[in-house]
Design brief:
single chain, 2 domains, four-stranded antiparallel sheet, 4 strands
């Protein structure tokens, strides 16, 4: 799995402060943005907002991630989080899943519960091999890629670009990382996304519970 933050709101803290202060200030948002509030004041407002759960102002902070080498199973899970989330996914209709020039299988993700068990891993790889062979047989028979893809498994790897706002990221993080029961792959994705944002905006770390230990 590869996750890269490729675009982000330049100054999330001041953006949140400006949006929050606009709701209660006689000043225009332009005047507020041009002012020079102290970092302590901006952090105070942000902390009040996040602890009181008035999170609409966090929607003004956006970020775009490039994600590669994840499974179609993860994609199905992630795409359920539709509010405030945009997706552009590598298409199996147009991108061929044939073997590479080196004769290797099309990319796929092996779950840790499988890779830790040699017998299970052997079974899994045989299933991948069979799916690959069937896909190529269908393609050789003249079946379009958009129909041949139906034999590809949930473990087939894919790539996507996703854009979401800070409120959405915090919500998905809570559901897929903080709340027990999420599958390992989507949990890892959300941890990496959160860490990439916190690296840019270190003050946010306290609003992603447990992130420093992960």
């Amino acid at each position: 799995m590869e996750v890269a933050l490729i675009q982000c709101t330049t100054d999330m803290l001041k953006t949140i402060w400006c949006a929050a202060r606009t709701c209660y200030s006689p000043l225009s948002p332009q005047e507020l943005w041009q002012s020079q509030p102290t970092r302590e004041e901006m952090l105070r407002i942000a902390r009040h907002i996040f602890t009181s759960r008035h999170l609409s102002v966090a929607e003004h902070c956006g970020m775009t991630f490039a994600v590669a080498g994840v499974s179609r199973t993860l994609l199905a899970q992630y795409s359920r989080h539709r509010i405030g989330v945009s997706l552009s996914v590598q298409s199996q209709r147009y991108v061929s899943a044939r073997r590479t020039a080196e004769g290797c299988l099309c990319a796929h993700v092996i779950p840790p519960g499988v890779s830790a068990n040699p017998e299970a891993k052997d079974i899994y790889l045989k299933a991948m091999e069979q799916a690959q062979a069937l896909y190529e047989e269908l393609a050789d028979a003249g079946v379009p890629k958009e129909d041949a893809r139906f034999v590809l498994p949930g473990g087939a790897a894919t790539n996507f670009v996703t854009t979401l706002n800070l409120r959405s990221l915090m919500d998905i993080y809570h559901k897929r990382v903080v709340t027990p029961g999420a599958q390992w792959e989507i949990k890892e994705l959300l941890v990496r996304m959160a860490k990439a944002v916190v690296e840019r905006e270190p003050w946010l770390v306290e609003y992603f519970p447990g992130l420093e230990e992960l």
